[in-house]
User: Fold these one by one.
Assistant:
Number 1:
Amino acid sequence: MIQLLPRKTWLIIPLGLMLALLSTSCDDNSFGTVRYDDIGPFDTTGVDRVTAPNGLVIYFHQQGSGEVVTENQAVNIRYTGRTTDSEIFDSSYRNEVDMPTVLTLRNMIPGFMQGLAGYNEVIDGQNVRMHAAREGSRRTLVIPPSLAYGSSSTHQLRSDTLVFDIDFISIIGQD
């Protein structure tokens, strides 16, 4: 004699299948598997850039259209950090998942924070915030040692210029 599954089980199976299908659907917010070593640097050839008075270089691959970020906010980003000889030292892809990472800007090295939240420049005697990123921006930051880990620290990258490729997804909120 064949025994039928309870009615609740029949409801759970289709719901589970629907959830599985939804989780594999393709859209801008889906997360896939990414090999850490396969993440190549953004191409900066012919890309608009600015060099701040403090030596920070910002390449503007894509201007976002969302809100402008401030240094007191947490952000959702994808990023890869390299030394100038292209050695990866950190990445949001380090677990081989293409999932954004949440970072609080004021807890980051100064050059990273300034590369997204902008930097101050005196124009006509007034302090002006320059080049703050909007949600949806894509940038490459070239950060001199003085805005990274600095020569006085004991960090292994203290004397290195750092290069970060960043996809700025969204602002999470104030921290």
Number 2:
Amino acid sequence: MASDNQSQPGTALGSVVTNGIQDISAFLPILGTDQCETHCCQGIDRGFWYVAATPLSIFGSLGIIKAGLVTLIISIDIPSFRGPRLLHNAGFSPPGLLRQLTYVLDDDDSIYVAEQNVRSMLRQHRVIEVIPNLYSWPWVRWNLKMFAFTMILSALGISPYVYIIIRDINPRPFSSTWLYPVLRVCGSALAAAMIQLIIQFRLMTIVHRRLTFHAVNHIFKQEHRAPPTWWNPALRSEDCLSKLKADIDGFQQTSLNHSYLEKPGGLGGVDERLVGVGPFKRYPRDDSNPESERNIQPIVICTVAFQLGLVLGMAASVWGYIGCFKIVQSSTSATGPLVWLILELFLSVLRLWIWAFNPATDDPPPPIVISSGDLKPDAPRQDYVAHDIGWRLEDVTVDMHALVIDISSGVHGSSPQWPMFEYLTQHLAVPEDQVQHIRGFNPQVIRDALRSLSKNIAIPRGSPIVIYISHHSDRPTDSEWIGNVEQGLSYATFFELVRRISGTKGENVAVILDTNFPAPGTKAEHESEPYVLLTACSSREIPNVDVSGGSFTLELLTALKPAAVEKLCYEELSYEEVVRRAAEHLKVKGQTPRCMGIFKKRQIFNGILARKRLRSAESDSTSSLISATFARPTGDEQNSRSSTHTTLHINGNANGTLRTANGH
């Protein structure tokens, strides 16, 4: 009797705890909602583990539903339903990459943020070729992994309900027990996966049409034709191209009876295939290829299918979410709810650990690959080089600026070579108006150019700045001067101007000297200087030169070419490591390059090579979803039918080709 009385307090306490868990179980999933919503929209930016771990626990699963609802609304943008603006007016702030799908301005005609980012990359490019390829294996493989791991990890979300269903409410049928956890898990996993696919396809559609708009706009300028009155780069490219297609279709129908008519609104030279109804090639590579005749319509169909899948996933998740709490609250023992709570908390901690761990192996393939090369009708693809841009559509070369000073290049009597200028503008695709190239020696011009870098308001603070000097002379030079004492520029003045640049524009400045080593009195080699200094040799050596330029420059650029960079890891792309590799090849010439400065371990050129992975573009046609080729004018363009091009590969859409030429 006494033992029964002693056990009652413990039983009562357990009953209170159990009842408390049952009462607040519907509110516990609010924990982690914000994190789940944010990470569910970051998969294609930070890796598929962010997506796969999200549905693990019911705690925070409401975040998946919220992210799915925002994704669904923002992905629908038609005249009768402007999803992005409706979300803005309702006070929603889309997380992650969904911001790329929002409007820049609070206006129904505003362009997308993604379009604005693409415009910043296009502003210096004149010629464009767009080649969609929906069957990019790296892209397909990543999405398959994302979906598979999401389903596998989500299956663990059923485990907290096993004890309650088997031990407490086992006689009940499947439809009132196991069905609810299965619906919650499968619905959440499906919704999380569909969110990634919708973001990808919408981004690719927007980017593809902005590229197409840019191509058509170039045709108008190239052929000196006035575009239609409604043609406006500040408006969404989707709307402009739809109107353009309607005008062309109307003209084609009319021209069947009136063959003498010209295309309206300056449309002469604008092929209807430019607006997504077929491929366009000014210089066809292989017109016999039937794959090139496909258009971008499949991506629209796929997007609608993914939206339906998202709705199905959210509905199943909500249904299962409600049913799971019925299971917990119908438990007949004190142990069942405790086991449920402990396992759900464990899964929540496991999810946090996976998010925090974030291995690099789950990173998605880059959506954009910029390539550069000499594009001709019969140009082989291996003549291209390429580097990657992430899913945020940010190109660091847009902010990169350089001052290239070629006082002398190559041995005496040889034709001038400009290897550093060509590398920056062609291989790294830095806009040419951001690379000032001084040929020959004029101290005042050099001083003015250095001062302009520090005062240029167009250069944001923190932008990468490269200052390069190449000077090789047959006559002895003073180590305190660039050039000779009578007509040269003192190193003291030069580095004082460099310090001013670093003071106004930030410490992301690299100085590359392929000339005599600065004298100790200039303090240029001090390790505490707020810039990185790369020199061709030590103080007791003389830099070597051959017909193609300085030996140090050539070895440095060789170490940065695609064949070399592809084999390197992230840490090996620092200034210090690149100079060390160049020094190994220059030992036989008695030349020891040096790298100095407190930021010498920083990634070279602001991490352009590490972030973009410079590589050969020979296989880009199979690894990219969309390839687009840009060309900028070169100094010899007026005297030559070929010009230097920059190629942009963007993952998205279906097979097809678009190219405009530079008036050839």
